[in-house]
């Protein structure tokens, strides 16, 4: 999963870089159009046309790429997404979240007990990770818990159903 996260976030960063490259080209080759575009963006935020044009010119003379990246693209060109930190976070999260269910799988108890314990432990881990990530990000923890637990348990159910369809044994 960490590898998939790295690939996914790398693709996102490549897209961000490509957008910035396109913006650099436009700033070098279409300066007046870019001033107009930035002024229009400011007008949509409620600034009068005259003030918007003045602000656009001032922003572009200060740092044109930064002005367009933040106001047009919604990017900070100095802080593009980092695939390595995303991969590391994913690795740590999935490892930590999988340890408790793994412990239930290793207990010398009947298979039904293992399955119930694994599902229960996974549900608790999913709820906790949803809650913690929401609190750290300042988001609504209820939505995060429901989304995290729902998607995680739904994925487990889907994997179990695929196993049933292909007659895969639990091995216990």
Mean pLDDT over the full residue set: 90
Which structural class fits the helix and strand makeup? mainly alpha
Query: Total number of β-strand segments?
Result: 0
Distance between the termini: 26 Å
Give me the number of helical elements: 6
**Main β sheet profile:** none
Strand content: under 5%
Low-confidence runs of at least 5 consecutive residues: none
Morphology call:
elongated
Q: What gyration radius follows from the Cα positions, in whole Å?
A: 24 Å
SSE pattern, N- to C-terminal: HHHHHH
The percentage helix is: over 70%
Walk me through this protein's architecture.
- It is a single chain.
- The mean pLDDT is 90.
- Helix 1 runs antiparallel to helix 4 and helix 4 runs antiparallel to helix 5.
- The chain is built from 6 helices and no strands.
- The longest helix has 28 residues.
- By secondary structure, the chain is mostly helical.
SSE blueprint and pairings:
Elements: H1 2-29, H2 31-44, H3 49-73, H4 83-106, H5 111-137, H6 141-165
Summarize the structure.
83% of the residues lie in helices and 0% in strands.
Features:
single chain; 172 residues; mainly alpha; 6 helices; 83% helix; elongated
